[in-house]
Specification:
It is a single chain. By secondary structure, this protein is α+β, with helices and mostly antiparallel strands. The protein has 16 helices and 23 strands. The strands form 6 sheets. Strands 1, 2, 8, 9, 10, 11, 22 and 23 form an 8-stranded mixed β-sheet that branches. Strands 13, 14, 15, 16, 17 and 20 form a 6-stranded antiparallel β-sheet that branches. Strands 3-5-4 form a 3-stranded antiparallel β-sheet. α4 crosses α16. The C terminus is likely disordered.
């Protein structure tokens, strides 16, 4: 038997996007517990820019954009091309704008803002060059006081000791705001260092969770529902080897995302989908030997093991990441790793890697993460590619510079590419980018010749920002059995659930947007509401 204090209305497993769902539940008077495996809240969301792809939402209207949900629906239908996901898409489109309206009633969330990040399939029906992505406002660390110590640090801070200063943005801002709003409802409780072991089922209904909390086994009961929001299985070698080509050591997902919730759901009869998929991204290997998410390349080229270009290096990252994985598996040519080849002019113009936390070039060279040579022939030998092919590839690329037209891969032609004409780093976050200096005489700043020695090569590998396969859910975020029946009392969202977007990444903020939207829908189902209801949070 469990004691009374171990019984709640709702238990949320995971504290990334699920923390917003927990706030929604607690704001409705439900006694809500968040259990978090680690000692800090935020998960992979804390590493992110916290973009939310929410068509038709209030921030888009405030920005003066004429964004029609039906146009977004047309776009989703076209790029996902999966009738089995249409009800999930419709639910997502209903929930996103509604959730923003509700969150903005609470002073902690303030007003979300739109930043122009183009939809990733810009030529498809319904796409928009301004995008549909909204972001939380920055947050002053002092506003949270001691609570801010509970928020997971950003990836640059965790890996390289980067000091973010007194104001945080992106995922850390969203998580900090959600944490404060959740705790101040008076109905929200947080249990850190608490790992999910399994689900408690009675008479066919999930009624709680078995966890290990600070080393001790504990049973916690949920009278209304359990929401699994514990991320994917990107850090679990066994599951990745079973379902995918990669093993997880190159992931940019949170280190504790090892599929605990996925396994727990399967153990009680849940169906799964898309387990072979991930939100793949190119990863630039840094001096510490691990990759970091590389959102776009302004200069130089990427070559495979044959010394040949194979992709538009500036295309949307998920598309490039998938292309690396696909080509490595299907062509018989090494694409893992591939090599980013550039020259001194490119290095002087843009540097390498992550702008706010970039180590000196000497550190890159000493670690072997960067190769340097006076000639292309010497560089080809250092990265083990045929010189004749590399030389031919570079000459072909250089030939595109005078006209500004990439005749092979069309780099610089689409709206996403064109953002990188002017900036270095992550486009949507001004704290993670800086203006790119133009090189005079070239009409396309993404096609500047590689002709100024010495020459350099960095390593690109397929990374990810999480797996995207998981438990199959319906439009209420209820976890389904293989026959399509919901498992009573059990819900899932985020990367614990199979993605509503299937095998594609429609636009910036789809992963976190899905986590928030389906967490919201789960709570609405628990309380008996719908995405058209407007009940919710305090304005205090």
């Amino acid at each position: 038997m469990t004691s009374n204090e171990d019984t709640y209305d709702v238990i949320v497993v995971g504290s990334g996007g699920g923390l917003v769902g927990a706030y929604v539940a607690a704001s409705r008077g439900l006694r809500t517990l968040v259990v978090e495996k680690t000692g800090a809240v935020g998960g992979t969301v804390a590493y992110s820019g916290a973009g939310l792809w929410f068509p038709g939402s209030a921030p888009l209207r405030r920005a003066g954009l004429d964004d029609d949900v039906e146009r977004a629906r047309t776009y989703l239908r076209d790029v996902v091309a999966d009738e089995g996901r249409e009800r999930l898409q419709d639910a997502y489109l209903r929930a996103g704008a509604q959730l923003i309206d509700e969150l903005e009633q609470n002073a902690w969330f303030q007003s979300f803002v739109h930043a122009p990040v183009p939809d990733y399939f810009s030529s498809r029906p319904g796409a928009t060059p301004t995008g549909r992505t909204v972001f939380p406002p920055p947050l002053e660390v002092s506003a949270l006081g001691e609570r801010f110590d509970l928020v997971r640090r950003s990836l640059p801070a965790e890996r390289w000791g980067f000091d973010e200063g007194p104001v945080v943005s992106g995922g850390r801002a969203l998580i900090g705001r959600a944490l404060a709003a959740f705790l101040e409802t008076g109905n929200g409780m947080l249990r850190l260092n608490t790992a999910l072991e399994g689900l408690v089922v009675e008479d066919g209904r999930v009624v709680g969770v078995d966890v290990v909390s600070d080393g001790e086994p504990v049973r916690l009961r949920a009278e209304r529902g359990v929401l699994l929001a514990a991320g994917g299985f990107e850090r679990d070698r066994e599951l990745r080897e079973e379902h995918q080509q990669l093993t997880g050591e190159w992931s940019n997902g949170a280190p504790a995302n090892t599929g605990d919730a996925l396994r727990a759901g399967i153990a009680v009869g849940a169906d799964t989908d898309l387990l072979d998929e991930a939100w793949f991204v190119p990863g630039l290997v840094r001096p510490d030997g691990l990759p970091v998410f590389h959102s776009g390349t302004r200069g130089g080229i990427w070559v495979n093991g044959e010394g040949e270009r194979f992709v538009n290096e500036t295309a949307p990252y998920d598309q490039v990441g998938h292309e690396i994985v696909r080509r490595h598996a299907s062509t018989g040519v090494r694409h893992i790793p591939c090599h980013w080849v550039f020259d001194q002019r490119q290095l002087d113009r843009d540097g390498i890697g992550f702008p706010p936390a970039e180590p000196p070039v000497e550190e890159w060279l000493a670690s072997g993460a960067l190769k340097k040579a006076d000639t292309l022939e010497e560089l080809a030998r250092l990265i083990d590619v045929p010189f004749e092919a590399l030389d031919r590839t570079v000459k072909e690329f250089n030939g595109y510079a005078p006209t500004g037209v990439d005749e092979r891969f069309h780099r610089g032609e689409k709206p996403w590419d064109q953002m990188f004409q002017h900036i270095v780093g992550f486009p949507a976050d001004p704290r993670q980018n800086f203006p790119g200096e133009p090189v005079a005489g070239f009409p396309n700043q993404l096609l500047v010749p590689i002709d100024t020695p010495p020459y350099y090569a960095a390593t690109i590998v397929p990374s990810d920002i999480g797996t995207k396969g998981g438990l199959r859910i319906d439009e209420h975020a209820r976890v389904l059995r293989p026959d399509g029946r919901p498992i009573a009392g059990l819900y899932a969202t985020g990367n614990t659930a199979a993605a509503m977007s299937g095998r594609v990444y429609p636009g910036a903020g789809t992963p976190i947007g899905s986590s928030l939207a389906f967490g919201y829908l789960a709570v609405l189902d628990i309380v008996g509401g719908s995405a058209e209801d407007t009940a919710g949070g305090s304005t205090d």
